Amino acid sequence: MENSNSSLNTTNSCSLPKIVVLRWGHRVQRDVRLTTHVALTARALGACSFILADTADRHIEETVTKITQAWGGNFKFDMAVPWKRAVQEWKKHGGIIVHLTAYGENIQTSDVLSRIKAQNKEVMLLVGSQKVPGEFYSEEISDFNVAVGNQPHSECSALALFLDRYFEGQELDQRFEKAKISIVPKERGKEIKTNNVEF
Ligand SMILES: C[S@@+](CC[C@H](N)C(=O)[O-])C[C@H]1O[C@@H](n2cnc3c(N)ncnc32)[C@H](O)[C@@H]1O
């Protein structure tokens, strides 16, 4: 789908199957750090792009953009897109919606993950912050409501665990193209490689 009125990224420049994360309910006064962590988790663990729905937050955009420029990859950051429009466009494009919620089908004790994978479609993951609108649970919005355990915890941990299970760990071995900085894994100490850039 290419819609000239849309800022949504629907082309796949990811090395892994495409997942887009939509963060709903960001509160500018109190969620800056957590929303930034949700976006960085999405990037590091294999999602292609991130939508900060309904709200603009230049500070978060700047942080995520700087990280991507330094550490590489094609991660895209969008903001102020109305959540319902993002969902409708995604569905029109043929993608499915997975809502992460403690009330959903348990990712460990049900077959929900294999049903999602069997669809073989691109996935938009909805994560909340404050209590989400009731319609998020409905068939009109979410194709699947998935619980990462049925205890409430955090959007960050739910997202990380979902992505790791979905990608079966392969996301931890991704290459980030055009990285200016990267870590050389070591048993002890810290080693980084830089591409002649000062940090
Ligand atoms: C702090 S929780 C909000 C809990 C809130 N009381 C509610 O009614 O959803 C923020 C977000 O984290 C995610 N989340 C928290 N626990 C989860 C779980 N066990 N499984 C999946 N997602 C979870 C959901 O996306 C939720 O909207």
Please count the helical segments. 5
Largest beta-sheet details: 6 strands, parallel
Q: Give the terminus-to-terminus CA distance.
A: 38 Å
The CATH superfamily name is SPOUT methyltransferase, trefoil knot domain
CATH arch. level architecture: 3-Layer(aba) Sandwich
Ligands bound, unique: S-adenosylmethionine
Number of domains: 1
Order of helices and strands: EHEHEHEHEEHEE
Biggest β-sheet: strands ordered side by side in the sheet: 3-2-1-5-4-6
Detail the poorly predicted runs: 1-7
Mean pLDDT: 92
Rg (CA only): 17 Å
Q: Specify the helix fraction band.
A: 25-40%
Shape, per Cα inertia axes: globular
Q: Indicate the proportion of strand residues.
A: 15-25%
Number of strands: 8
Kindly report the CATH topology.
Answer: Alpha/beta knot
Layout of secondary structure:
Elements: E1 19-23, H1 32-44, E2 49-53, H2 58-71, E3 76-81, H3 83-92, E4 96-106, H4 112-119, E5 123-127, E6 144-147, H5 155-167, E7 181-183, E8 192-194
Parallel strand pairs: 1-2, 1-5, 2-3, 4-5, 4-6
Antiparallel strand pairs: 7-8
S-adenosylmethionine binds next to strand 4 and helix 5.
What distinguishing features does this structure have?
199 residues; alpha/beta; Alpha/beta knot; two-stranded antiparallel ribbon; globular; binds S-adenosylmethionine
3D structure, described in words:
With 199 residues, the chain is an alpha/beta fold. It has a single domain (19-194), classed as Alpha/beta knot. The protein contains five helices and eight strands. The strands form two sheets. Strands 3-2-1-5-4-6 form a six-stranded parallel beta sheet, with helices on both faces. α1 packs parallel to α2 (58-71) and α1 (32-44) packs parallel to α5. It is globular. The structure holds S-adenosylmethionine (SAM).
